[in-house]
Amino acid sequence: MPSTVSIQVAASSSHAEMAGVEVPDGRSRRSAVEVSDGRSRRSTIDPSDGRSRRATMVAGQHFAGIDALRGYAAVAVVLLHACVPYARPSMAGLSWSVHDTPSDIVTALFWAIELVIMPIFLVIAGFFAARSVSSRGGWSVTMQRLQRLGKPLAWALVLMLPLEFYIWMLGWVADGSVSIREVRRIKFAEGIDRNLWGLSHLWFLQYLMIYTVILASVWPRLSRCSTTTLVRFGLPCTFAAAVISLTMRPEVVWGFQHSFLPVLSKWVYSGAFFTAGVFWYSLDPQLSELGKRGQRLLGPGVLLSAAAVSMGIWWLNAAGDPATWLSGGWANAPAMNGSLAQAGGFPIGSVWMRGGLATLSVGAASLLTFGLLGIAATRQRPLGRGLASLAAASFLIYLLHHPIVGLASTAAKYAMPGASPLFKVAVVTTLGVAAGWSVSWLATCRRERIWEQTHGGEVAETIEFPRVGGTDRAEEKAA
Q: What's the rounded mean pLDDT across residues 110-123?
């Protein structure tokens, strides 16, 4: 008998869609996991052209480490937004509920998280989207993703964005930036609201749905690409696309592009990392190679990230008023500045300056992302109860934290005026994480009660399958 591990399937199904993990919705008693016969699935060689191709995979282990990474990344997103009021230089183009006492430590932490956090989510999403498409077909996965991501996005647009607006206005009125009359009329002077309108943090759901539709369209052709093609051309092209988009528009990372519709530069940059995840599935569907070698990337990634953050903060300070460079407004940027001599005297808006920052940023984000994935891929043990609960709540933490963090940041400024910025960040982060985590826990408890009432108390939240190791494999299918 092979050793077994347990995974919790009572978690919300929608959170798994951020990384392509499929879980049952509780409406069927049929298990979402079918135990394989113990013979491992391997890549095949197509004799017609001699190229090595990945076999269509319907089997694979449950990546417990990736679940843990997704949970930690969700907490990092909350921490990122909790740091916003204290970051100087602040993020150009981002309207926030309040600004507080600046902190150099919080600033460095903010930009370090900003550099890598979305590439982590995007690579994971691309990897598991390709995994789902290869096993269940492109359009089946697409319709499921559109439903499971589209519904939360629609509800958030109707309920959360109006709530965020008035929470932001509360902070602005308290700061004296706007008057109550302006809030009532929703008409503001001097363009203070120019960066206020858009999808806020929900842009990720919109982009993810578009990427999934495109993936389903190109998958039949993409799945026939050889390993050599992906290694020599595919991955380098994704890196180049990210560098070019960030060179043209540094605000993709070093600012914020707020809109209700996709912004081309941001869409290309994010799509490059999503595509890298898709390509990596084709190269290493079980993450075995990344698990063996990926950890070596973490050290260089940390060093490169320190260089990128340092240069980015310097560049933002040297660039001055965001109005002179945001959205590519380079014509009005100062041609020379006393600090520019440290970088060879290049104008702050030159392609060399922006290209160097972009290359550092993309390189650091890539190394850290795949390094962390390599560490996560080595974990096959089931998660502890607390960490499994956090991973299950990651989608709701992401979805619900934004207004909580905005309101808590305003309250922290006026309720604790003398407190350390680090203490305020810790308090606000805790509240933001607790909001989504508690809702997830309540939803799980409710689902378990409904199951017990309809199925006579049978236990449904735990299923077992053979641990991956040697020749054992487990087949995952949607219930």
A: 97
